[in-house]
Task: inverse folding
């Protein structure tokens, strides 16, 4: 299939609710699914503490839950309502970029080999916003034998198209993942290990704060080398890429920190995140690493990364990107790729046997698209009124 023409670009609003469970990231981009012709505004709408607590409870219980479970449905509705608000607020901020379509990731509550589960009510979101919604981005990849994650590498590659290779993007979310673009333009990707999720849990247990704000606790501690090596002995690190993780894949790791002071535990968890990245085998060594995701706000983590990684380490803003909005932008980008029938994943990003399309379209109120539909030859059928 030939690449879509830049003039066929649409304004896509991407929505991402990540593994940190902290809120919804929303961003607008203009794209044809290959190039990004404009970046619009972005915002983050935090979840109320009670919703965060209920989401965490869902994650902990997800393996035994039925899709029609009443609590699950209630949380899904509350979560979707926050997404609706995010869309409404962002549209008000961008009257110059009227939204054509929403890319809605939803919230992953379970991610295991052969099974990935995102909650979020696309029909309600579409109805409330009167916009078409592309969602369910991971199922087709998993059904075809892929990991279903990470999906952001094709967006990273689009952003990096004129950067000297080898070059990498590193996302430090609840889970960390990287994309490497090689000299020959190959896109290699995987989840690397924990990002901030364990550190968040540790900080919340020891200081009552939702994260180790500005890395202050970890900066006071000393890495326990023995515990660190124990953590890095997890079988995940022996698996070849592509590979992916669940928010709770390393949940038991905190038990290995028992007996450490709050500061030493935090320092050891920072080293765990960093060493998991530094030890990920890559076919080429990146000249530059561009770091996005909330972890780049943690100076202790960024300093440790800079020391451990070969090549220069920069926050995403070094290239003028918004490092808090990249994943949301990505799901706008993938929504357009889905509509254009372009792959969302590759054998080198998710392990899927061949480049894989994906996403599902839900249209409850398609007013913006009626104009478009009415221009399409109807072969004897009349257009909807
Ligand atoms: N000032 C800060 N100091 C330390 N950590 C911070 C700071 N700001 C954000 N973070 C970290 O960033 C996390 C949120 O990151 P982000 O929003 O990228 O995660 P996510 O998108 O939910 O995760 P994922 O990419 O795995 O889906 C917070 O949970 C926190 O750990
Ligand atoms: C199953 C799932 O939701 N995975 C997330 C998670 O958060 C980071 C990492 O693990 C990544 O694999 C993925 O998110 C991004 C957006 C991705 O698919 O690329």
Result:
């Amino acid at each position: 299939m030939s690449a879509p023409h830049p003039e066929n670009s649409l304004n896509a609003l991407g929505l991402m609710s990540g593994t940190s469970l902290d809120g919804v990231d929303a961003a607008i981009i203009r794209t044809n699914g290959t190039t990004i012709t404009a970046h619009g505004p972005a915002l983050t709408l935090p979840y109320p503490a009670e919703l965060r607590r209920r989401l965490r409870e869902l994650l902990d219980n997800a393996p035994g839950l039925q899709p029609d479970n009443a609590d699950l449905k209630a949380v899904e509705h509350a979560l979707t309502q926050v997404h609706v608000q995010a869309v409404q607020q962002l549209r008000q901020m961008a009257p110059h970029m009227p939204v054509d379509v929403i890319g809605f990731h939803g919230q992953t509550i379970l991610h295991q080999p052969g099974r990935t589960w995102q909650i979020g009510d696309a029909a309600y979101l579409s109805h409330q916003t009167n916009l078409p919604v592309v969602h369910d981005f991971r199922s087709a990849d998993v059904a075809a034998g892929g990991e279903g994650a990470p999906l952001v590498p094709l967006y990273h590659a689009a952003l990096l198209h004129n950067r000297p290779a080898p070059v990498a993007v590193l996302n430090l979310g609840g889970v960390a993942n990287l994309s490497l673009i090689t000299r020959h333009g190959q896109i290699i990707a995987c989840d690397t290990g924990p990002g901030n999720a364990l550190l968040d849990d540790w900080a919340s247990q020891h200081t009552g704060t939702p994260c180790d704000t500005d890395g202050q606790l970890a900066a006071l501690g000393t890495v326990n080398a023995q515990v660190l090596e124990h953590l890095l002995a997890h079988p995940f690190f022996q698996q070849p890429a592509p590979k992916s993780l669940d928010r709770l894949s390393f949940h038991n790791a905190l038990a290995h920190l028992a007996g450490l002071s709050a500061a030493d535990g935090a320092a050891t968890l920072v080293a765990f995140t960093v060493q998991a990245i530094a030890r990920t085998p890559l076919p080429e060594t990146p000249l530059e690493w561009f770091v996005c995701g909330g972890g780049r706000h943690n100076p202790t983590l960024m300093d440790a990364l800079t020391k451990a990684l070969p090549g220069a380490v920069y926050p995403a803003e070094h290239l003028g990107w918004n490092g808090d909005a990249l994943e949301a932008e990505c799901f706008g980008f993938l929504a357009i790729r889905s509509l254009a029938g372009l792959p969302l994943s590759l054998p080198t990003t998710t392990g899927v046997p061949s480049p894989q399309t994906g996403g599902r379209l839900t249209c409850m109120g398609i007013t913006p698209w009626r104009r478009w539909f009415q221009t399409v030859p109807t072969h004897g059928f009349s257009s909807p009124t």
